[in-house]
Design goal:
heterodimer, A: mainly alpha, Four Helix Bundle (Hemerythrin (Met), subunit A), 2 domains, 6 helices, elongated, B: mainly alpha, 4 helices
């Protein structure tokens, strides 16, 4: 009886140890990504098999793009507030609303153009095949896929 | 007749011993067991090597094949579960990082569900 219990416990302990070892070993890459200073860029490096030089160049592009993007985000937020304020003050189309909507569209277009330019630059920095894959991926994930437009449904 | 004299007492004892027959059966593999105990007693208590460990396991586990199968099955379950969950966790982390990368670049991303 004692032997049986001992074997049972030994088996369970071995199974738990095996689980822990395999889990720890197989999640080490994910933990490394999360621990890096810029996890999303570390992910990009791993996902698109970038060399150190390519990764350095893409990190520079990323660092250059972010402040510009933040500034455009600020302008978009201000413009959204302006449109909102104009819409609550009236029940008909006014020249001010038309101008505000046009300005919102201009800002959005500028934001999307710059984003697209950045995606192209990043893709050109990658090896050709990975660059194509990157473009296909960002196209699927961003405004480039046309989501949010009326699709006739 | 005085049976207390040493010579006569031995003869009587010899006679009795010759007539005596044991009916009781020895347990199975009794002799093997005795020899094993003698060998064990003669083996010096050196540092445990594989034979000692194997002997210990052999004594511990009444049916080694069954016990080995049981341990092997549990090990396999442990390894498979660990591997499957690690894959899921890695996919989840990578998915989150991919999402974060896009959100950093695209301010028009819909809010997270």
């Amino acid at each position: 009886m004692k032997k049986g219990v001992l074997i049972l416990v030994l088996g369970l302990a071995l199974a738990a140890a095996a689980y822990g070892c395999v889990y720890f070993f197989c999640t080490s890459s994910a933990r490394d990504l999360e621990r890096s200073s810029q996890p999303e860029l570390a992910w990009l490096k791993e996902e698109f098999h970038l060399s150190d030089a390519e990764f350095k160049r893409i990190s520079e592009l990323h660092a250059t793009y972010l402040p510009q993007c933040a500034e455009r985000c600020r302008q978009i937020a201000v413009q959204n507030q302006r449109v909102k304020a104009l819409l609550t003050g009236t029940n008909q189309m006014t020249p001010e609303i038309e101008a505000a909507v046009a300005e919102s569209a201009r800002l959005r277009g500028e934001c999307q153009r710059n984003m697209l330019r950045h995606f192209y630059e990043v893709s050109r920095t990658m090896p050709p095949e990975e660059g194509r894959r990157y473009l296909a991926w960002v196209q699927e994930r961003t405004f480039l896929c046309g989501e949010g437009m009326m699709s006739g449904k | 007749m005085n049976t207390n004299e040493p010579g006569k007492r031995d003869e009587a004892l010899h006679g009795l011993l010759k007539e005596w027959r044991a009916d009781a059966q020895l347990p199975a593999r009794f002799q093997d067991g005795v020899w094993r105990r003698i060998e064990r007693a003669q083996t010096p208590a050196a540092s445990p090597d594989w034979d000692v460990v194997a002997g210990w396991i052999g004594r511990l586990v009444p049916r080694p094949a069954l016990a080995a199968s049981y341990v092997a099955i549990l090990l396999t379950i442990g390894v498979t579960t660990g591997w499957t969950q690690a894959r899921q966790e890695t996919a989840r982390v990578k998915g989150e990082l991919a999402d974060r990368y896009i959100r950093v670049l695209d301010p028009y991303q819909p809010p997270r569900q």
